[in-house]
Amino acid sequence: MVQPYKHEPFTDFTREENRNAFLKSLETVKSYLGQDYDLLIDGERISTDEKIVSTNPANKEEVIGRVSKANKELAEKAMQAAVKAFETWRKSKPEMRADILFNAAALIRRRKHEFSALLVKEAGKPWREADADTAEAIDFLEYYGRQILTLKEGVKVQSRPDEYNRFHYIPLGVGVIISPWNFPLAIMAGTTVAALVSGNTVLLKPASATPVVAAKFVEVLEEAGLPKGVLNFIPGSGSEVGDYLVDHPKTRFVSFTGSRDVGLRIYERASKLNEGQIWLKRVIAEMGGKDTIVVDKEANLELAAQSIVASAFGFSGQKCSACSRAVVVEDVYDQVLNRVVELTSELSIGNPEKQEMFMGPVIDQSAFDKIMGYIEIGKQEGKLMIGGEGDASKGFFIKPTVFADLDPKAKIMQEEIFGPVVAFAKAKDFNEAIEIANNTEYGLTGAVITNNRAHLEKAREDFHVGNLYFNRGCTGAIVGYQPFGGFNMSGTDSKAGGPDYLLLHMQAKTTSEMY
Ligand code: NAP
């Protein structure tokens, strides 16, 4: 009997033994920096001449690993392997598939700090952010393993005398998984194993900024007993291999997490029928956010300021759920703003290998340039309160930045910046605050800080986001507790880590037998 699901606890780094274990894991990771990683196609490791070179965003010179790069020919070979493997994998027992996930969870748990240390190095995550990423990956394995066990019998439907009807779920086929770099372990692992445990075979294309941790995860799934051909690992350029896979007539579904523009492109391309294709492709697309914390006048203002700072600057604001807008009722606006500036001035920023760093770098040069560009726009549109500077000499560091007095329609109030920048706007009352909160094309996360019950209820009805939080920050959804996904241009609201998620990877079949 499988134990009930419980999410993986976060590591307590105030304890010396945990700190020492983490430092040791950083050493372990250092010992294998710069190695080569192969593609995995039909169980065979394939090395290519062309490589994706993954580097440390806190220290550009440091090479994390060199990962073979798939081209169209290799993507085609992987597709053929996945098509073939589907014929047996689709008939495999759900219990066996779940066991592979539970086994993988146990293997990762044993090397938990090593995976987190690799995230520190490859993605520039501070310790506690890396630890949360690894914990979430374990959670996805444990949660989806249990979910398939609840779905395997299907759902009861009516039968009549001499007639027996069944309604059950079957897998779709070959899924293309395209993942982002900001949760390079959790989202990559979660989207991959959801597809696998539902009985599909997979082509996994990880983000080019973080392919090493994906390669390590693929090794774990092999070790956990995944048969060959079921998961094919094909890192490569999004625009080259990505388009090819999305367009492929044998692709049955695409599970994408990433930016709005790439998500839209995939959605559109997947809707076109290609020669030899006999189905409508399904697309799961989880995209960007422009997430708001609303602060009411009857509120715990210290909680409000702490929540804004933690949600805006955790992992340098590089979360789809990050707070990039604070909308504060005018009566308490100055108080909250000043406290946020004060708290921001106390944040430590630097190489995230040091435990004391609250913030590390942003992911790469293009992210650095884009965020600095938005900071320049912010200086025109609002009042710079703190931060606003960056230094890309060794790594890609940007100071946590607060802008005040923005027009709700200003560019930095509307577009996803994906960096450590938060913009403040004033609302005359709570109703106006909710109106401003809803004024973007996104609808991913949001939070409301208030002690007014009627206002909470209004927000529950009118604040149009997929994940709404009361009296806390707007980041940090936990698998099985706060299923995650957004409305409008934030995507298809797939609710990763929720009870309906696996169904998106399956189709229902009705069989009716007469006796
Ligand atoms: P991205 O640039 O859209 O890339 C995401 C993935 O798409 C990468 O693997 C990328 O490959 C690939 N890709 C690029 N062009 C493609 C194409 N034409 N066809 C197919 N695939 C293509 O996003 P990102 O910068 O990695 O991630 C940050 C974004 O993700 C933010 O907008 C954030 O809000 C969003 N996000 C959303 C959620 C959510 O749950 N809603 C969660 C996390 C992140 P390359 O790396 O090779 O370019």
Automatic annotation (TrEMBL):
A GO MF term: proline dehydrogenase activity
Keyword Oxidoreductase applies: yes
GO cellular component: cytoplasmic side of plasma membrane
Active-site residues, Swiss-Prot/TrEMBL: 286, 320
Documented EC number(s): 1.2.1.88
Residue stretches making up the Aldehyde dehydrogenase domain: 49-510
HAMAP family xref list: RocA
Protein name: 1-pyrroline-5-carboxylate dehydrogenase
Organism, scientific name: Bacillus aquiflavi
Lineage of producing organism: Bacteria, Bacillati, Bacillota, Bacilli, Bacillales
